[in-house]
Amino acid sequence: MDVLFFMYALPFMYLFFLILKRVCDKRDQECYILDYECYKPTDDRQLDTEFSGEIIKRNRNLGLYEFQFLLKAIVSSGIGEQTYAPRIIFEAREENPTLQDGILEMEEFFFDSIEKLLARSGISPKEIDVLVVNVSMLAVVPSLCARIINHYKMREDVKVFNLTGMGCSASVISVDIVRSIFKSYKNMYALVVTSESLSPNWYSGNDRSMILANCLFRSGGCAILLTNKRAAKHRAMFKLKCLIRTHHGARDESYQCCLQKEDDQGRPGFHLDKSLPKAATRALVDNLKKVAPKILPTRELLRFSVVLLVKKFSRNSNKGGPKAMINFKTGVDHFCLHTGGKAVIDGIGANLELTEYDLEPARMTLHRFGNTSASSLWYVLGYMEAKKRLNKGDRVFMISFGAGFKCNSCLWEVVRDLGDGNVWEDCINSYPPKSLANPFMEKYGWINNEDPETFVLPPLTGLKAPSSYF
Fold first, then answer.
1. Domains with residue ranges and CATH for the chain
2. Using one digit for the tens of pLDDT, what is the confidence trace for 128-156?
3. Which of the following is catalytic: 31, 38, 145, 168?
4. Which of 74, 182, 325, 402 has the fewest CB atoms nearer than 10 Å to its CB?
């Protein structure tokens, strides 16, 4: 009788253990952020109005019209006076960079932020199982990953990924790589290091589409520690809920709107085309179409579908009524937007019908730190945390854009109440300021009244410029 019972029970026991194993395996595939550390360069690398103007005047290839264009771009950029630049700028060597300049710029960030992150988390470098580094515009041999491994003496079996050319959206791509690895391996720690090397990439020509990058990009970086260890769940800050990547590289217009190239004089730089806003909007819309069903409640999806159908078949549909909009706030509490520029933030805000409260973290990050490329998202996240906006159970939606052209997004769930001052600690109480206006127009507004026939550039003051300029 016992044998017969066992024979009948065996299939059910097998099914039970199969389900249990699948549930446990799924739990081991979760992706958590344990901690992150944004980089803040030293104060001697801050770009105030006076020094920014002197840097521009050093470029003897610029004429009055280029100065007027730059003034308009800087004044409307949303960038303040406390952003940071690489040391080569302060040494007036931006037109003659060396390979070592780019390497030293990255190592200064690596060894500061990674050191602080590992020390605070109590994790040894030898415990790191996966290392992903993304720096788009600097490729060296040995790789930047290898330099980190050598400095921290990591294990010989650490899984390494060194990403270049992925643009401002690379940190989300790095997280996606980690997530994929976590699906196949248990009990792992992953370190994502995201930054951009500006030292070798200053544009010294006069092509407007390329000098614009000099105004927008600033020094920064972030190191992020992730894990899928169940035992570390209680220490985690965020849990990854969803990640969607959209790539429009097959479209020629999208591919060419944002690329590294040489101008007519052979000077290398970063070209930002007039078609960029259109390409970004198209990529954003396609990305949102895929991510919406995964992060929004069913009731909102049904409401939107009904409104869309009613509008489509309504007799008044041809009279240009209000657009049918999906409300992302029904599934998202906080919006972490890439600080590509004021126009980028405004555009996303308009497309998603966000309030100034929603856009505040991105605007303040752009003002304080500028566009730090792929690491920008983490400064925005740090602002939310420093303002004590992030509470357990909240959902944070990250949106980033990158050359290619790409739009990548992901949704994080806050695992515990957060409120550390992080990189914002020394200035968070002064944000948001009463005005985001910078003093460039007050200082350099006279340029708009100059006559092209008689314009003479004022001499450099307080700076030692290379003799090759004169």
1. 27-314+321-448 (3.40.47.10)
2. 999 999 999 999 999 999 999 999 999 99
3. 168
4. 325
